[in-house]
Amino acid sequence: MKSQQPAGVPGPDSAYRRHRRFVRLGQLLLALGAVILIVHWLAHLETFGPAQPEGWVDLVAGYPMGALFLLGGGVLAGRKAP
Length: 82
Description:
Layout: H1 12-44, H2 55-60, H3 63-77
Keywords: Membrane, Transmembrane, Transmembrane helix
Transmembrane segments: 22-43, 55-77
């Protein structure tokens, strides 16, 4: 049975789908942040060879970037349903 929503007016189903997309995006960002942090940590342990990450990589793409991804993913994944 179809809902009685007028054409062009978003219903509760579309709001829920949009909410779920944001939650899934947040979960993806959480996973990506964890991968960035783990790979960066393993690089410091010299798992991939004797070379350490360069200083600018350490400041930009290392722990701060992983933390930003975790933080942004946590905010998106923790959204309350409308």
